[in-house]
Design goal:
Elements (H helix, E strand, L loop, with lengths): L1 H16 L18 H7 L16 H17 L16 E5 L1 H5 L2 H11 L4 E7 L12 H6 L10 H10 L3 E7 L4 H6 L6 E2 L19 H17 L3 E5 L7 H7 E2 L8 H16 L5 E7 L15 H5 L4 E5 L19 H21 L6 E2 L2 E3 L14 H13 L5 E4 L9
Parallel strand pairs: 1-2, 1-11, 2-3, 3-5, 5-7, 7-8, 8-9, 10-11
Antiparallel strand pairs: 4-6
Helix pairs in contact: 1-2, 9-11, 13-14
Length: about 425
């Protein structure tokens, strides 16, 4: 009943204001094209857990130690899968697009990291347009010509520069939102019942999460990113399109095994984690913000319990601007970043505790936080460093000492 009330409040708020998240869509944004209405209708919750590594090393030592182990694993693969390095730094990172990584903007972002408590960068390897941002050596990438307009001219040099600055590197791979592959390889695409390419409300085609070659493609990219030297692989858009009931009425999936959407997502992450184990990298995934607070997969296949049990880190996108008026009992959540983030993450911790009590594994929580202004909202707050710090503090008071900051233009107020 509580979840339904929250969802209804969110929906009424959006209807009355005439605002949807699609108005706020920006290139590469983890929630691009998803309205809070669809979130409330489609999302589901999963539990994460905190990683309290005893004998915690310094960030620089942890990152160096992890890379040395990975290099050794490349030189001579062991008989069995090597263990993931025990020490993982408390990641405090920022998103870096492929375009930002190729320009002088990168120097500014490195300076920001070096002058603050930040220590990590999430870099686009495959963005949500389906573009590969570097010159890949994978035959399937060449077949698709997905890297024909790559932004990062020398990915190895980029990683080397970040290593020199002791910056933890995370490769972001948008998985199932891939309009480029859907057009170039239509047999991979979600189709309409009439056989045409299915498109979402913004005219974007998606690839079919049930298709095994789609999953293999994402995993092979992840392996290449690991081999290039990234410390962690982050899967984004690891879900079905939102507004699931509408999608189900319009689309046809290639699902001969009759798996549920959440089973398909879980199986992909399980396979990815198993195949990446030999590479010595951590595996993380982005999920909708409401997954911390609601049950069910919301029609998109994101079930908190299923996802967190398969990966190392789970990153709910708890941007205050993406919660409707009245959610968590908060009027205009965008105006109250501290309270909104704390309530969202507190729900996630409860789910996490339930998993551990059931003797199940659960991923560490590392939330995406808002460092952008939601100008499409009325009213809205102009976000600055204090508002970002309020979100960081809200998480920290709950024992969550990791976070990622999102700004699609890579222009951060955080200091």
């Amino acid at each position: 009943m509580k979840v339904r009330i929250i969802a209804v409040a969110a929906i009424l708020s959006m209807i009355l204001t005439g605002c949807s998240f699609s108005e706020a869509a920006q290139p590469g944004e983890p929630w691009t094209g998803d309205s809070i209405v669809h979130q409330a209708q489609t999302l589901e919750a999963k539990p994460p857990i905190q990683s309290e590594a005893p004998g915690h090393l310094s960030v620089a030592d942890e990152i160096t130690d992890q890379r040395e182990r990975r290099i050794e694993s490349y030189a001579e693969p062991p008989a069995g899968p090597p263990p993931i390095p025990k020490a993982r730094p408390k990641v405090k990172g920022i998103y870096v697009s492929g375009w930002a990584a190729r320009t002088s903007k990168l120097d500014q972002l490195i300076e920001l990291v070096n002058q603050t408590e930040l220590n990590a960068m999430v870099i686009d390897v495959k963005n949500d347009s389906g573009q590969i941002t570097y010159d890949s050596s994978l035959p399937i990438v060449h077949q698709l010509e997905a890297d024909s307009k790559h932004m990062i001219h020398d990915i190895k040099r980029l990683i080397s520069t970040l290593n020199e600055n002791h910056i933890y590197t995370i490769a972001r791979i948008a998985v199932f939102k891939d309009p480029y592959a859907a057009v170039r390889k239509p047999e991979w695409a979600i189709r309409t019942k009439e056989g045409a390419l299915w498109k979402d409300a913004k005219g974007t085609s998606w690839v079919d999460p049930y298709h095994p070659e789609v999953c293999t493609y994402a995993i092979e990219l992840a392996k290449e990113a690991a081999h290039l030297g990234f410390d962690e692989i982050q899967f984004d858009y690891v879900r079905f399109p939102d507004n699931g009931s509408k999608v189900d009425r319009e689309a046809v999936f290639q699902n001969p095994n009759g798996w549920s959407k959440s089973a398909a997502v879980q199986r992909f992450l399980k396979q990815a984690k198993q195949e990446l184990a030999a590479k010595g990298v951590y595996v993380s995934a982005d999920v909708f913000g409401l997954t911390t607070s609601v049950t069910g997969d919301m029609g998109i296949g994101q079930t908190w319990e299923d996802i967190s049990s398969e990966i190392d880190v789970i990153s709910p996108m708890v941007y205050p601007s993406h919660y409707g008026d009245g959610v968590f009992g908060i009027k205009n959540p965008d105006l109250q970043p501290y309270v909104t983030v704390q309530k969202a993450l507190a729900d996630g911790l409860k789910k996490n505790e339930a998993l551990t009590q059931a003797r199940k594994s659960a991923a560490s929580i590392r939330p995406w936080l808002q460092d952008f202004t939601a100008t499409w909202l009325k009213p809205h707050k102009i976000y600055g460093s204090e508002d970002v710090q309020a979100q960081v503090q809200a998480a920290k008071e709950l024992g969550i000492d990791e976070y990622l900051l999102w700004n699609s233009k890579c222009t951060y107020t955080f200091r």
